[in-house]
Amino acid sequence: MTTRARIRATAAAALLTLTAGCGAQQSGDAPAGAEPADRQTEGPAEQDTGHDGGGLPRLDVPVTVGTDLLVGGEQVPGRWYAADGRGTHWIALRDDRTWWWGYDDEPQRIEGQVDQSVVISPGGGYSAQVLTESGNRWRLVGADTEEGGEGLGAVDLPQGAISPPPRALAATDDGLVVAGGPDFQWLWRPLVDDTTVDLAETAPGQVVLGSTDAGLLVNEGRYDRTDGTQGTPYLARLAADGTLIRLDPVPTHDVLEAGEQWLAYVPPGSIGGEAWTTTELFVQRRDGSAAGALEAPAGWRFAVPGFRWESADDLLALLVSPDERTQSLARCRPDAETCEVIHPAG
């Protein structure tokens, strides 16, 4: 893997496995969900690639292709490694390792020392990040992604020499934020009463792994050694009192994205070390009524992580050439098991 490819893959992994929606700044009295751009498809046989007059695809989620950041059919100035959000509301990591956010194609800097990934709620309304401060101190900060958006405030996290350092794990469309480290996970309620809840008390033995468009990704285990590769991971809805309401079970996985109707994932052992691409993504309906696999278009491989549900039936997937020097973008339909390149290589 080239140095540039490795950096980009690491950045994407840090962002997408924590948010997935997975997967920005948000606030307000009600969830500030971003409105997706209008796009219609005629069906699998006549799939609309959704290009505007300038040649860029119209996308309902922000994405990076190469070092280009595409938001709502526009290219954001700068060079970027990873992005997340919904509609035109986004967060992204720039090539100088600084984090930025926006509600259109105008980037705005996230202030403070951000050493871990920033997270954004599935609807693009709220974001959160942990700021590193002197003396082994960490501060959880939230904000919104609306024009003139206001911050949600901040709360101090446990202090001391913690390795790895605490990070934001998920933000919900209700403005709830989960953050944690190797020995704790807290729920912060900035729009309720600005207090924290210890999830070890309200959801004992449950570990929030990250967020998807269909709910939090959770597994049973310990905070310092639990992921989605084993056990019985599941989707859950987070209540304001810190309880986790189980929704659907999900397969064990290296990376998984859950949407309104479908799951997309790669099985355990698919990536790791030098391996960060695959020729196949597995898909299944959330109700278990159908399952299959998506093959990468000829001459391409899927980046992992690098896929996100754009709508109930459309999956956007970042493509990488076999020599890892070129990237492109595909829109896939799990019902038809098809993937079509919608953005030229770059």
Widest sheet: strand order?
22-25-26-27-28
Catalogue the unreliable spans.
1-49
Structural class: mainly beta
Q: How large, in whole angstroms, is the Cα Rg?
A: 19 Å
| Total domain units | 1
Signal peptide: 1-24
Keywords: Signal
Region (Disordered): 25-60
Account of the 3D structure:
Keywords: Signal. With about 350 residues, the protein is mostly beta strands. The protein has one domain: Methylamine Dehydrogenase, Chain H. About 5% of the residues lie in helices and about 40% in strands. The chain has helices at about 5-15, 200, and strands at about 65, 70, 75, 80-85, 90-95, 100, 110, 120, 125-135, 135-145, 150-155, 165-170, 175-180, 185-190, 195-200, 205-210, 215-220, 235-240, 245-250, 255-260, 260-265, 275-280, 280-285, 290-295, 300-310, 315-320, 325-335, 340-345. A 5-stranded antiparallel sheet has the order 22-25-26-27-28, with helices on one face. A 4-stranded antiparallel sheet has the order 4-5-6-7. A hairpin with a 2-residue loop joins strand 1 and strand 2 (about 70). The longest helix is centred in the first third of the chain and has 14 residues, at about 5-15.
In summary, what is this structure?
The chain has 346 residues and is mainly beta. It is built from 2 helices and 28 strands.
